[in-house]
Specification:
Elements lengths: L1 E6 L2 E4 L4 E9 L6 E7 L6 E6 L7 E2 L7 E6 L4 E6 L8 E8 L11 E2 L3 E6 L1
Parallel strand pairs: 2-11
Antiparallel strand pairs: 1-3, 3-8, 4-5, 4-9, 5-6, 7-8, 9-10, 9-11
Length: 122
């Protein structure tokens, strides 16, 4: 079992920045690929960014490339999502997820956090 707890969400003006954190605990969380998803009201949950357990290659959905950066620190079992140049369309609940067998953009992850709200005002 792996437990995931997100933090860092909030209200920010368009053009601003936020950094989300996801603290992992439990069974060898550093062995898992990690990802951030988001879900806006009335929409499906979508992949935002992912990083393998090695912390090497990173993956992003097209709408956030150049604005968001995912990173992980296995020493403290935490993954981050640095979000810059935020837009109102980035408003959503952001979820952290863990998967044993590598990053995928599908929702087939083994563990999920409870989510943190990000609201971007225009």
């Amino acid at each position: 079992q792996v437990q995931l707890v997100e933090s860092g969400g909030g209200l920010v003006q368009a053009g601003g920045s936020l950094r989300l954190s996801c603290a992992a605990s439990g069974r060898t969380p550093s062995s898992y690929a990690m990802a951030w998803f988001r879900q806006a009201p009335g929409k499906e949950r979508e992949f935002v960014a992912g990083v393998p357990w090695t912390g090497g290659s990173t993956y992003y959905t097209d709408s956030v490339k150049g604005r968001f950066t995912i990173s992980r620190d296995n020493a403290v079992n935490t993954v981050y999502l640095q979000m810059s140049s935020l837009k109102p369309e980035d408003t959503a609940v952001y979820y952290c997820a863990a998967r044993l067998y590598g990053v995928t953009q599908s929702r087939s992850y083994d563990y999920w956090g409870q989510g943190t709200q990000v609201t971007v005002s225009s």
